[in-house]
Design goal:
Distance between the termini: 26 Å
Radius of gyration: 12 Å
Number of domains: 1
Helix content: 10-25%
Oligomer: single chain
Number of helices: 1
Strand order of the largest sheet: 3-4-5
Strand content: 25-35%
Order of helices and strands: EEHEEE
Length: 69
């Protein structure tokens, strides 16, 4: 059993591609919340991530460590 689900950065039902570099692994709990609460997820070219809810930044990450990039 997988502990993560792929999230399409651009929603699949709105034409988002299924390319691996456009998917984020999320646990089921956060994947459900993302959709239910309509979080806005922005994945930059360096894979840094910004998550907003109701226009407010609720989480940011830097790019992955060099060994994971």
């Amino acid at each position: 059993m997988s502990l993560t689900e792929p999230h399409h950065v651009e929603f699949w039902e709105h034409g988002g591609a299924t390319d691996l570099h456009l998917l984020l692994p999320l646990c089921r709990h956060h994947h459900d919340r993302l959709h239910r609460e309509r979080w806005d997820v922005h994945l930059a070219a360096d894979r840094s991530l910004t998550v907003r809810r109701d226009g407010q930044v609720i989480m940011t990450t830097g790019p992955p460590a060099e060994q994971w990039a």
